[in-house]
Amino acid sequence: MPELPTSTLTLGPSPSTWITELRKHYSNCQAWFEKLPHSEALKLQRYQIRTDLYYLLRYVMGRTDIEHPWMVRRIREIQQEPDGYLDLWARDHRKSTIITYAKTIQDILASHGDDPLPEWQGREPTFGIFSHTRGIASEFVRQIKTELQSNTILMGLFPDVLYDNAERDAPRWSVQNGLTVKRKSNPKEATVEGWGLVDGQPTGKHFMVLIYDDVVVPESVSTPEMIEKTTKAWELSQNLGDRSPKMRGIGTRYHFADTWRAIIDRGALKPRIHPCTDDGTHSGRPVYLRPNELEKKRRNMGPFTFSAQMLLNPIADSRQTFQRSWFDKRFEYGQLDHKAMNRVLLCDPASAKKRGSDWTTMAVIGKGADENVYLLDFIRDRLSLKERAEEFMRLHRKWKPQQAGYEEYGLQADIEYLKILMAQKTYHFEIVTLAGKLSKPDRINRLIPTCADGKFWVPEAIMRTTHEHKVEEQIVMLIEQEFLAWPVPVHDDGMDVISRYFDMPDFDFPEANEPEHVDDRYNKPRRAQGSWMSR
User: Fold this and answer.
1) CA torsion, points 313, 315, 319, 322, in degrees to nearest 10?
2) What is the pTM of this model?
3) Same domain for 61 and 97?
4) What's the chain's Rg over C-alpha atoms?
């Protein structure tokens, strides 16, 4: 008898022969089934469909597009560990076909009926498919619906699970209301339902399996606020599982700081990343698509979109990036003599204190005699005019910089209140207007050589309670959300204000102190005689 299940079949060492080996194996399986009594053959076919995802896709659903060694690897990967992963695969590499579509169907067939597989422990799972919008999720439900009501092989092998006429007989059988197969239990959830995260998210539902597919789409990364809204919606959806739901994430990348990034950073799902090339680079060998197909996508998509959606690296298109290792130079405040440095205070104010506006950022930069640049202090917060002026004054009192700079357009709006505050505090200082013709990206890119040469030092930590009453570690936020995300960060205000030290006039490195010499009492300069200046 051929080995069952085929998902554990040992294949040869050369992937180029795998498809031939699998075709031969499944042909032998079919020949064996035909020799068995009908009832026994049906039992074995049911078992093979429930345990062999490749067989289900290729020979029951007729998907010839998965006859590829790379697909064999991916399908076995999903068969063995379907839950707890965020599967980020390149576009057009069949991730939704394998996981959201085929694996969901396989799990329904394996867990329902008269003889469910023991690993389901008698539970009849419900599946909630969540996408950015309900319209996207509905298309996944529609695909599953079509298969379960029209695939005659499945309907013939699983009459205890599937209806002969589901449109007529099933309790629920529609894209909008969900799909309910034959089951012994009666939960309020359909067997499969599709919902949107940011529009139409349900309440009171509790699914055993939460499937997140196409959560991140172009609309979800259009603005920082949209990214935050999508992430918050995903957080709320965690209440739509049962006590210990299985979770599956499926998608591709659109932005360095998208919701997938938040899910990875929190450890909610383990990333399983498969780019379109074997080494994840533009020049790598294609893993599934033909070279000419991949080249066409690269040409049509453009470098950034190709890097994000095909290489799964939203910043791989640009050499103008910052590396994590560049920020290993850290200092503690007690280690530095900042008074020996030349120092500037810089401010780039936001236009308004409201959600959606830019951040107000301030930085104190020190230049040391060792020719290193030190970020002595840093603020990123949403501040009112009064709060901005008070913070600017506080930092000036604390660090006593030789110069203070203020972004040109912000200074025009804030200067009158700053003058009033200086008069009230009896504390006056000059403010340099920061203008210039460089674009923001060009201003920020000026920092790359300094950082790359290991000349930019940052403090170990700066803790700050923001106006929203959140305690933030400002340095981690600055590095993770801005520097490492460049050139596609959610925010870039911190990098921009730091880069402004290049625009401060005469902001140079101090001269190193000369070594002390022993006084030579025979070689002292003589005092001038007879001058009023000498008295």
Assistant:
1) -110
2) 0.69
3) no
4) 32
